[in-house]
Amino acid sequence: MKKTTGPSLNQLNQRKRNSAFQDKGARNGTGSHNVKNHTVLTYLKSAVRRCVGLFLPGKRKTSSKVVGNDERKNTDKVRELSSSTDLSSNNSNKGSSKSNFSHSYASSSSSSNQIGPGNFSFEEIYRATSKFSLDNKIGEGGFGTVYKGKLSNGPLVAVKRAKKDVQNKHLSEFKNEIYTLSKVEHLNLVRLYGYLEHGEEKIIVVEYVNNGTLREHLDGTRGQGLEIGERLDIAIDVAHAVTYLHMYTDHPIIHRDIKASNILITDNLRAKVADFGFARLAAIDPSKTHISTQVKGTAGYVDPDYMRTHHLTEKSDVYSFGVLLVEMITGRHPVEPQRQLNERVTIRWAMQMWKQGEAVVAMDPRLRRNPASNKAIEKIFRLAYQCLAPMRKSRPSMKNCAEVLWGIRKDFRDKALTHHSSNFPERNARNNKHKTLVSA
Ligand SMILES: Nc1ncnc2c1ncn2[C@@H]1O[C@H](COP(=O)(O)OP(=O)(O)OP(=O)(O)O)[C@@H](O)[C@H]1O
């Protein structure tokens, strides 16, 4: 079990100083802006202006291009890189059929393939997913179908292939978002390797995470069920990841769609947060879970203050995190339409239980009840209550949430140890004897 889940504040500050974004901001005279009042939209608009040279649809006669970590390494040379990642200039895409990728693949040579994160061709992805075979399909979301793939000399990847209706709107904005997001690196964030266009195909390539989503673990369709200590670790990982996004540059990156199905779980039951910054794109999909007005997000998780004001801040993520905490304690989905009326909206029901001093009633029936976990649950509810404050200014920061959760985890471990010792005196005596022998 890993102990260190995120960078220290110093490291964060160092990264902030080093970030290419800030370099560019400095060049543009925007690096020192106080952006507390900026919305992500403002930020994106300025990003579009800054990066406009990178992606000018229609200016280049290309059918395939990559946006990813290559640019990250050479932000001062974005224009050169833009053309160097234009794979059509020296590969097969010349003459390929735009509407039939299997034809284009067949007619392609792969002479220009440069394997590695952020620099891959459509052919490489096509091969990596065994021609987008059903055997490699791992999921379906608002953006499109997700496939597992293995780059020939690179890592396992998840390949997100856009549905047709994600093709047009907001594309230049999206590309700029991708450009920014591909620079973000944190242990608890799913790494974005890059973005690829090939004819009508739009493909996002991200780090593959092996052990399903948090939602699947809570539903019991994956794994052995999560203990309270494991849930606390996951909540802390998420809090670290989102704190990092919020503090990444002077312009915070707001996740916009924190939910249990966007938390991916590793083999050792730690969390990696996926899909940061994508909510706008996914919201193009008219699926029921998305609100297709100006307000983006997933039903049940969206900050009411944001819905009212359309003003997006980091505190909207804090609200969604509050919903997530309740989801993790109760095991329930945010909205459960089949339940009786007073239990349908989980946060409302669970918070009411907690206020009445009956937090244990709202606790996931699969969690073991004992003094240590009951106490931890109560404290998590208290934090969730603060995150769910109707007015954003009353909510804690994400960094503060992480600190509170650390404290809860520490107390839980201490109490669990005492409880364990007093319930198993013989085993405890045996362990102590063993310790004495070892130290002797
Ligand atoms: N990086 C990844 N590694 C492994 N599996 C993934 C990865 N990303 C997505 N998946 C799988 O694909 C499914 C669909 O993911 P996707 O992000 O497209 O949609 P979603 O987050 O479930 O829903 P929505 O798009 O509505 O927010 C996930 O539920 C998960 O099972």
TrEMBL record:
Residues 68-80 have a biased composition (Basic and acidic residues). Residues 1-13 have a biased composition (Polar residues). Gene3D superfamilies: Phosphorylase Kinase, domain 1 (3.30.200.20), Transferase(Phosphotransferase) domain 1 (1.10.510.10). ATP binds at K164. Keywords: ATP-binding, Kinase, Nucleotide-binding, Serine/threonine-protein kinase, Transferase. It catalyses: L-seryl-[protein] + ATP = O-phospho-L-seryl-[protein] + ADP + H(+); L-threonyl-[protein] + ATP = O-phospho-L-threonyl-[protein] + ADP + H(+). Residues 1-34, 61-114, 419-440 are annotated as: Disordered. Residues 132-407 form the Protein kinase domain. Residues 430-440 have a biased composition (Basic residues). Its EC number is 2.7.11.1. The keyword Protein biosynthesis does not apply. InterPro entries: Kinase-like_dom_sf, Prot_kinase_dom, Protein_kinase_ATP_BS, Ser-Thr/Tyr_kinase_cat_dom, Ser/Thr_kinase_AS. Residues 81-112 have a biased composition (Low complexity). The keyword Transferase applies. One of its GO terms (molecular function) is protein serine/threonine kinase activity. Belongs to the protein kinase superfamily. This is non-specific serine/threonine protein kinase. It comes from Lupinus angustifolius (Narrow-leaved blue lupine).
